[in-house]
Specification:
With 261 residues, the protein is mostly helical. The chain has eleven helices and two strands, in the order H-H-H-H-H-H-H-H-E-H-H-E-H. A two-stranded antiparallel ribbon has the order 1-2. The radius of gyration is 21 Å and the shape is globular. It starts with a helix and ends with a helix.
Length: 261
């Protein structure tokens, strides 16, 4: 455990530039938008909009973080992989560090989204907080989920790089990613078999809105969409969790057995 914590400490140093870049870019954008909209009397609206947009953009935070962190390790790959720890532990240290940095960045952005949102959408503070908390948790979950797919793609890139030039291996991985996305998310994800194993534990969004005591405007908006997709399935979350665990351990196995020299 001490060895892993020491590795996490090192990862905090390696990944710090990504956190600083994310916060600096957000602050620069915030200043530009605020100054641009202040003269028209919509400064707070601008703050809320850029906060919401930048917060949603954190879906890609972990993927960018992992690409950067793994690219740093690529320069000294033999040293990183000769660590006695299993590859799953090495990758877990990066995921843990990236998640902490993402949460810090997202908290900064959420403050702007919350304060600004109170001025341009007529929800109560409590409703805004509940919506924000749900969105916050889902952005973190989906960002980590997406980053695991990126890890596998990068590990495959490292594997192919042993047999072909970096540009060619990157091209193969890029094309392979889109083929995989089409087959897995397009064909399999929309198949009857996938629906049969994932569409259980139905959660009615209208019921959730009422149980969380959202403003009447939120409940009415959800009710007005009845007949559309106003529900989600707990099974989708469970199946996706199982999927990314499998992908994570495949990436770890490849890194241990095929990439390591």
């Amino acid at each position: 455990m001490k060895a892993w914590l020491a590795l996490v400490k090192k990862e905090f140093r390696v990944g710090l530039p990504i956190l600083l870049l994310a916060i600096v870019l957000f602050l620069v954008g915030l200043v530009i938008v605020t100054v641009s909209t202040y003269r028209f009397g919509y400064a707070w609206d601008g703050v809320g909009i850029i906060g919401l947009a930048w917060g949603g953009g954190h879906f890609f935070f972990m993927a960018i973080y992992m690409l950067y962190s793994l690219a740093v390790e690529r320069k000294r790959l033999h040293l990183w992989l000769h660590n006695p720890m299993h590859a799953s532990g090495l990758l877990a240290a990066k995921l843990a560090t990236g998640t902490v940095y993402m949460i810090i960045s997202l908290l900064v952005v959420s403050i702007a989204a919350y304060v600004g949102g109170l001025h341009f959408v007529e929800f109560s503070e409590g409703t805004w907080f509940k919506i924000g908390l749900i969105a916050f948790v889902h952005v973190v979950m989906f960002a980590i989920d997406f980053s695991v797919y990126v890890i596998l793609a990068y590990v495959v890139f490292l594997l192919l790089e042993r047999y072909m030039p970096a540009f060619l291996s990157g091209t193969v991985v890029f094309i392979g990613w889109w083929v995989f996305a089409y087959l897995f998310f397009g064909l399999i994800g929309n198949s009857k078999i996938y629906a049969a194993i994932s569409e259980w534990g139905r959660i009615d969004l209208g019921f959730v809105a009422n149980s969380l005591q959202f403003d009447i405007s939120i409940r009415e908006a959800i009710v007005n969409f009845q007949g559309e997709d106003t529900f989600i399935y707990a099974g989708n979350y469970v199946i996706e969790l199982i999927t990314i665990l499998i992908i994570y351990f495949i990436a770890s196995w490849l890194l241990d057995k095929k990439v390591e020299v």
